[in-house]
Write a structure and sequence with these properties.
Helix 3 packs across helix 5. This protein is of the alpha+beta class and about 140 residues long. The protein is elongated, with a radius of gyration of 20 Å. Strand 1 and strand 2 form a beta hairpin. The chain is built from five helices and five strands; from the N terminus they run E-E-E-H-H-E-E-H-H-H. A three-stranded antiparallel β-sheet has the order 1-2-3, with no helix packed on it. Strands 4-5 form a two-stranded antiparallel sheet. The chain is about 40% helix and about 20% strand.
Amino acid sequence: MEKKMKDGVEVTICQYCKNEFKDDSKTGTTGLKNHIDKYPARKCPSINESFEHKKKKQVQVEKLVDGKVQVRSFTFDPEVSRKELARVIVLHEYPLSIVEHVGFRRFVSRLQPLFHMVSPNTIKKDIMNIYDIEKDRMKSFGID
């Protein structure tokens, strides 16, 4: 989506089909969200062309307090998500097997379809990497 001024009115234009949407407090975000749902990130041509890259661009629609709609892109990085998953497991003392639980896998895939769940061994390796980094950081402060 791209915002532009047209005839003195701010409009949002879909970069794929070139449909235009008025940006005012009466239209809300539902129309934009429904339209964006037609183009999930995994099916977008620009995403498929750069599929060899791990980071994926996606669109986020947010309704602001003043009634305006903000459309912006953000980049999904699976490495960052894996690191955060490892940190959550450590913080809350979850078992490593949580990554194999069907309900947890389903929940995560609904939140972010581009994230591919890892095995317990992989998450263990990620946790050990975080441990090594934190251990080195503590040593730099003179704490053993």
